[in-house]
């Protein structure tokens, strides 16, 4: 698990969604990715995501994992 670079508390996944590459090109293999937004939920932190985790003020990082 990753930690916030500013306050060292554990980051939370705010949102995850799928993204695709080559899905408009029949000649190439379609690649699917899972994109996860990581946010800091420590209210003391400069990079605090705010009260609504699903709609963060600040996104620390976006993790992209290939799923196929
Ligand atoms: Zn933080």
Question: Could you name the key traits of this structure?
Answer:
3 strands; mainly beta; 68 residues; 40% strand; three-stranded antiparallel beta sheet; binds zinc ion
Give your account of this protein's structure.
With 68 residues, the chain is mainly beta. It has one domain. The chain has no helices and 3 strands. It has strands at 11-21, 31-40, 61-66. It has a 3-stranded antiparallel beta sheet with strand order 1-2-3, with no helix packed on it. The radius of gyration is 15 Å and the shape is elongated. The model has no long low-confidence stretch (mean pLDDT 95). It binds zinc ion. Zinc ion binds at residues 4, 6-7, 9, 40, 42, 45, 47.
Low-confidence stretches are none
**Proportion of β residues?**
35-45%
The portion of residues assigned to helices is: under 10%
Structural class, from helix and strand content?
mainly beta
Rg, alpha carbons: 15 Å
Strand arrangement within the widest β-sheet reads: 1-2-3
> End-to-end distance, in Å?
22 Å
The major beta sheet can be summarized as: 3 strands, antiparallel
The quaternary state of the protein chains shown equals single chain
Number of domains: 1
Q: What form results from the Cα inertia axes? A: elongated
Bound molecules: zinc ion
Number of strands: 3
Order of helices and strands: EEE
Question: Tally the helices: what do you get?
Answer: 0
In summary, what is this structure?
The protein is mostly beta strands and 68 residues long.
């Amino acid at each position: 698990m990753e930690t916030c670079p500013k306050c060292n508390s554990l980051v939370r996944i705010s949102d995850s969604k799928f993204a695709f590459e080559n899905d408009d090109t029949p000649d190439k293999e379609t690649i699917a990715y899972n994109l996860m937004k990581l946010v800091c939920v420590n209210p003391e932190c400069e990079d605090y995501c705010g009260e609504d985790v699903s709609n963060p003020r600040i996104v620390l990082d976006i993790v992209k994992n290939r799923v196929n």
